[in-house]
Write a structure and sequence with these properties.
Layout: H1 2-16, H2 21-31, H3 46-65, H4 74-87, H5 94-114, H6 116-135
Organism: Nyctibius grandis (Great potoo)
GO biological process, one term: protein secretion
Protein name: TNG6 protein
Length: about 140
């Protein structure tokens, strides 16, 4: 029903914009869909599992890249969410790092396509800051 969809969207949006909300949402979605964060891609079903894995990462990235209706501005959403997306690149646990990095990379690409100026400001500049500092 529409009311349930709205309520779930509102709860998801509220969680995303809290500290560590992106990581919690990514972890919840990736762990709750069957393949799981620590599932390996070995054996005969490896290619199929990898495809499912990529589809899940793409779906999560689309969720992260979409500014919720409840958010007052796209700028505010990017300001709150983008540092958390970059934080997904620094997960230490090897079992989860690969999927979190896939989600972060796909989210970055999606945001850069949809809103290049905001993505540059909130994702690309912070990501490339150490490289730019060395180049100077």
């Amino acid at each position: 029903p529409a009311w349930l969809r709205r309520l779930c969207g509102q709860l998801l949006s509220e969680r995303l914009m809290r500290p560590n909300g992106v990581q919690a949402v990514v972890r919840g979605i990736m762990e709750g869909t069957g393949v799981g964060l620590s599932a390996g891609v070995a054996g005969g079903a490896g290619a199929e599992a990898a495809a499912v894995d990529w589809r899940k990462c793409d779906a999560v990235a689309k969720i992260l890249a979409s500014c919720p209706q409840q958010c007052l501005s796209l700028e505010d959403y990017y300001r709150l969410v983008c540092p958390q997306v970059l934080g997904l690149l620094h997960i230490q646990d090897k079992a989860t790092a690969r999927q979190f990095q896939r989600v972060a990379a796909t989210t970055l690409l999606t945001m850069a396509k949809e809103h290049p100026q905001l993505a540059e400001k909130h994702l690309l500049r912070p990501l490339l800051a150490p490289l730019l500092q060395c180049a100077e």
